[in-house]
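[Meeting: bench + compute handoff]

Bench side (C.D.) handed over the final construct sequence. Compute side (W.E.) agreed to return the predicted structure before the next meeting so the bench team could plan truncations. Sequence as handed over:
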Amino acid sequence: MLKIYSEEILPLIISDKDWYIEHKYDGSDVLKFEIPDTHASYKYIAEEVRITDGSNRYVIKKIDEHGGYVNVECDIDLDDWRKQFWKEFRTINSTLLQVIEKIRPEGWNIQGADKIKKRATIESSEGKGLENVVALDVLKKASEVYEVVFNFNVISKMLIVINPSEYEASGDYLTDELNLKSVGFTGNSSEFVTRLYAYGKKDSNGNPVTFSAVNGGKEYIDNNQYSDRIISAGWTDERYNSPQSLLEAARKKLDGLSYPVRSYECDVRNFDENMYMYKVVTLIDRKRKKRTEHRVVAFKEYPEAHYYDVLTLSAVPPKIEASMRAIKAEISEKAFEAQRASTDAVLDAMKVITGQNGGHVRIVLKEGVPEEIRIEHSDGTCTVAEAAGLSRGTGGGYFFLAESGRVELTAENGFKKSVQLPDSFTGRDVHISLNCAAVMNAGSAKMLQSISNSWTYDKGSTVLSVESNCRMYDIEAGKQTEPDAVILEYIVMGR
């Protein structure tokens, strides 16, 4: 739940699907949410007001009001890292930990910096320090120089240093038929290069360092991982004064340039909450017949509604530098928006009933027997339903019965299962939403070939029967198989 720091900490009650955290590759997480301008808490929403999700603290930076709704964007509260000012800042041949200790705000702790053994110089150009900077500016430069990212936990005052390249393949597989709701693709080869000429620091005569002495006399290197065409480019970085270090840096740079910048934006069923930034997964792209390891480079996380989580995956992670080529996945969500609309409507109706959006439900008893159900809304209106049937209330609309849950289907039960609904559904017309939450597998990698789910309902006995027909292909064994289990989620609305 979100909370507002006002004169006291106040709850900000909004739908679970109307707020999320946008995790970015450089660690600059952003909290975003939407509320109607009639919301009881809207009067507290203003620039620089602090918000917490319980795990971190944010500051409202952008407010966009339109059409009766307000979109709010909040950055991590990094005021501590903006207090101290340096007219000039420079370090020479220092470790990352030494740099951070010079700028660390009082009360903050550092985690992971001691693992970075590289020594480097923080400066704007050779012999010249950074000018007119605060601690946060220094961290941004350090991120580029030491090739790390920083995560901030403001509540615990912890700066976490992360080296994304240390994340190894997790062994998890993602496919649009297994655990993804939607996959979008973006490809860009505008900066594609297969041959790189590299030059380092210049000597007193203006001649730059090259790696020809350690590279068979050649001032260039080739990388034909994607294409055997020769496409040349030059690169100069005066931080390098050794041929060997320049060669190693050039190889690393060309490894990224010699492959198109590709990214996939994936709607992932993240019920197990096992997705996170920088995780390396194997993405199976059936359309392009590709099976490639990708890293999570952006993550739109719905902390209380992981069904809506969105990952951006890339085989070539973004470079950690000010002028880096940003990987953008401008994918339209129209294709799956209609699919979600029905489920969203059902969930919203359930929240009205349970009072999650404000107000509460009261059962009125007469001589110990339920006589009516009253939904007393936060706006002062009230919807009344007789216990023995349905009736239109003063707040408008009909009262709906609701039931939801999950069932696990396995080979032992023939991938079939029955659910007994409450007696209150007897004889009622129902609307049923059935979705596949997960396909579970263990052992060798398996690719989903097809899945179809169905249900039948007997309103006399109030028994809901669900069934899944799932076929998979064992990639390593080279044969058709079946999953260990299929997990289906159901929502039943009665009226």
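W.E. noted at the follow-up: The longest strand covers residues 446-458. C.D. will use this when planning the next construct.
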